[in-house]
Design goal:
The protein is about 75% helix and about 0% strand. It is mainly alpha-helical and about 350 residues long. The longest helix has about 30 residues. The radius of gyration is 20 Å and the shape is globular.
């Protein structure tokens, strides 16, 4: 049986595990919001192509505000997943390891910015790909294919923006890490990545349609179209916050044992309020830092060239330990599906 947040579900007649109410309720709500928002932004981009060229900052800002809280609760994951007797000790160990990894990553990013940016891109593709497949498995209660789907999702969200918008991302890359555009946007590399991305994404879509997984195919097609049609800043902002971040928050809502009774009764208001309250302080701290950086005089013009690489180092320093925590979380949320499906991983 699957156990999440204290709520269990018995396997269905087909052999696939029934989806527990604890995870089904918040994930259903998060999916509805994310798909609707992505569809609206895509339609606007198709009907009025110039709109997002001028207003890219709007979905980016909204996505940033919505997405920050999804990493603000990393420190509570070991508390929620560990045994009662070991929770406090595990929390201290994870916090120390988290800070140490963040510091080491920050130093590495400052010393080697181009390799750091490459690591960030590859790591993000893996992180987003695993996130998509894990969410798909948790929603259906059955394996959703770690291989092709995981790779296709990562390519759609990370590689496609570079393939579809090279002229737009080139100056951004060179500000983030001088010299990185020549490496990342190398024509031969782009050709290989482009052909590989097209083959993997199309093959995954066909396999999903043939296998009767139409919702999964629709989501992959929607994400790919979003990053092809909508400028990278707007598309990534929406994906990061309203799609990836919101779905991750839904998983956290299901993971917190304090939400078990409410979710079993299909009450979502109090669990959502609880997770927002828990993430309020770390989120506020991040927003204050961003506000201070924006308010410091002299950050316009050439000064930005010095600020952005530091910003990249900060982002990388926070992203690497977050990915590590989520990887552990994925492993802890998958075993029940794994056992019910003959040993195959649902993600």
């Amino acid at each position: 049986m699957i156990a999440l947040g204290g709520v269990r579900a018995r396997p269905g007649a087909s052999g696939a595990a029934a989806v527990p109410t604890a995870v089904a309720v918040p994930l259903r709500a998060a999916t509805a919001v994310s798909v609707s928002a992505a569809a609206v932004v895509l339609v606007v981009g198709l009907v009025a192509p110039g709109v997002w060229e001028r207003w890219s900052w709007l979905p980016f800002a909204v996505g940033l505000l919505v997405g920050i809280p999804h990493g603000a609760l990393d420190h509570l994951v070991p508390w929620w997943t560990g045994g009662t007797a070991r929770r406090s000790r595990r929390l201290v160990v994870v916090l120390l390891a988290y800070v140490a990894l963040a510091v080491l990553t920050f130093v590495a990013a400052r010393l080697w910015p181009v390799p750091a940016l490459l690591v960030l891109l590859v790591g993000s593709a893996v992180h987003f790909g695993v996130g998509e497949t894990t969410v798909a498995a948790l929603r259906t209660g059955r394996p959703e294919g770690r291989g092709p789907r995981f790779i296709a999702s990562g390519l759609a969200t990370v590689a496609v923006p570079f393939l579809a918008w090279p002229a737009t991302v080139r100056p951004v890359l060179d500000v983030l890490a001088p010299g990185s555009a020549a490496v990342i946007l190398d024509p031969r590399a782009m050709l290989v990545v482009g052909i590989g991305s097209a083959v993997v994404i199309v093959a995954t879509l066909v396999a999903d349609l043939v296998g009767g997984r139409r919702p999964a195919a629709a989501e992959l097609a929607l994400l790919t179209a979003l990053f092809v049609v909508v400028p990278p800043l707007a598309a990534f902002g929406l994906y990061f916050g309203v799609w990836h971040g919101l779905r991750h928050l839904a998983r956290l809502v299901a993971l917190d044992p304090a939400n078990a009774d409410d979710l079993a009764a299909r009450r979502l208001a109090r669990p959502v309020g609880r997770v927002l309250l828990q993430s309020a302080l770390p989120t506020t701290a991040v927003l204050v830092v961003l506000g201070v950086l924006l308010a410091v005089p002299g950050l316009a013009g050439h000064a930005v060239a010095g600020l952005v690489p530091i910003g990249l180092a900060v982002v990388l320093a926070l992203t690497v330990p977050h990915m590590a925590v989520v990887a552990v979380m994925d492993r802890r949320q998958r075993p029940a599906c794994h056992a019910q499906n003959g040993g195959s991983s649902p993600a």
